[in-house]
Amino acid sequence: MIRFLTAGESHGKGLTTIVEGFPSNIKVEKEIIDFHLARRQMGYGRGGRMKIEKDKAEILSGIRFQKTLGSPISLWIENKDWANWIEKMDPEGKVPINEKITLPRPGHADLVGVSKYNLPDIRNSIERSSARETAARVAAGSIARIYLEYFGITIGSFVESIGGVYSKNSDEINSLFDNNLPKDFDAWKLSERTDLSSVRVFDQDHEDRIVRKIKSAKKKGDTLGGTFITVVSGLPVGLGSFVHYDTKLDADLAHTIMSINAVKGVEIGTGFKSADSYGSESHDIITLEESTFSRGSNRAGGIEGGISTGLPIIIRGAMKPIATLMSPINAVDLSTMEAAESRRERSDFVAVPACAVIAESMVAWTIAEHIIKKFGGDSIEEALDNYKLYNKKLFARIKKNFK
Ligand code: EPS
Questions:
Q1: Which long-range contacts (CB under 8 A, 24 or more apart) does 214-218 make?
Q2: Is the dihedral of CA 262, 267, 270, 276 positive or negative?
């Protein structure tokens, strides 16, 4: 099985990622990891930190001459901002410089963090709960997506809405749920297009209206959230299972998206809308095309019974507004135990475009987990042989079983 661990504080020296369990002989170019790290930094509405950081991964182990060895891969991302925090964050410092941050931000992990860990300074809670950690996740997810490309599986994303501002044109989303996609549909192409937009949307009018909304939020010292959609293409039938609660692919994907900072909602396919519809309006008719089963639509979002159908997986996520407000709402000052305005501190105003990139990475990770579970292999060649044989025999086996 694959697993990854990340370590690092937001204003510490940097972030470490250890990735384990991928087979040998996968070609990993560092530039691809750096490319996705840079994508995570994009988006109109980010805060001052993104001007300081230029996230790049250093490969410390597990890869030799651009090929995985099958051993743990360790990656390092330097925090450029560390230079401004050395004294305040020094792991070896003997005299603590407590800032004594005493005003928790509603919606952030400040209050629950100091409560749970018995911490004397809210700074101690801020550091690890910060979304800075997601840079390390994107590094891990980049290895997963490189691996998935060997199987023809790609992942893309787009922002659906920010602050309740949706596109006037729903063709793009409809074509996903209607399964009205070209045969060679490649989900990455969605990202290629939306990466050109400052808020990762498809059309200019939508972008303009969102940027106006962000500007007005900024003026008020407020923040915004939004919804984003992640799509996976090129999947085989049969990832995940219905046999246990912890083997279902949709459950794993919901977990992976919900694990991203500030995400409060996840939906697979047309989940919530289906709850308001008749069965005949929600389910996807089964069709047969050239020795392959397909569906007349894809409202299931590519998963039935916890198992991939082979159609694109479609996941919608909802991110709440960033919790750090320049015009703060009320909290309790822990030093006086009296009501007080919460604290101001540098942060993003909107991070939904970045969240969508992080979602791609986390989804890549989960899909890679399921591919490895199903096809195994200590080398990429062995994994691909298993995969090809399974796909080749799939339809013939069903035909024979039901003759
Ligand atoms: C982030 C780094 C953080 C925040 C943001 C995401 O940097 P700083 O706290 O130094 O400004 O900008 O984190 C949050 C919004 C949050 O609530 O934790 C990053 O690298 O993405």
A1: 214/44, 214/45, 214/162, 214/163, 214/349, 214/350, 217/163, 217/349, 217/350, 218/45, 218/349
A2: negative
Alpha-carbon Rg for the chain in angstroms: 22
Task: Sketch the domain layout of the chain as residue ranges.
Answer: 3-388
Residue closest via CA to ligand 1's atom 7 equals: 49
Rounded CA separation 190/327 (Å): 36
The atom of ligand 1 lying closest to the CA of 53 is 20
Q: Which residue out of 347, 349, 358 has the highest number of ligand 1 atoms within 8 Å of its CB and is therefore the one to mutate?
A: 347
pTM: 0.97
- Does the C-beta of 223 come closer than 6 Å to ligand 1? no
Cα distances from 103 to residues 21, 178, 247, 323, 335, in angstroms, run 42, 49, 42, 13, 8
Average pLDDT over residues 153-164: 98
pLDDT in tens, 168-215: 999 999 999 999 999 899 999 999 999 999 999 999 999 999 999 999
The C-alpha atoms of residue 40 and residue 139 are separated, in whole angstroms, by 10
Distance between CA atoms of residues 73 and 304, nearest Å: 34
CB-ligand 1 contact for 139 (6 Å cutoff): no
Closest ligand 1 atom to the C-alpha of 46? Answer: 12
For the domain 3-388, what is the CATH code?
A: 3.60.150.10
How does pLDDT run across 234-291, given as a tens digit for each residue? 999 999 999 999 999 999 999 999 999 999 999 999 999 999 999 999 999 999 988 8
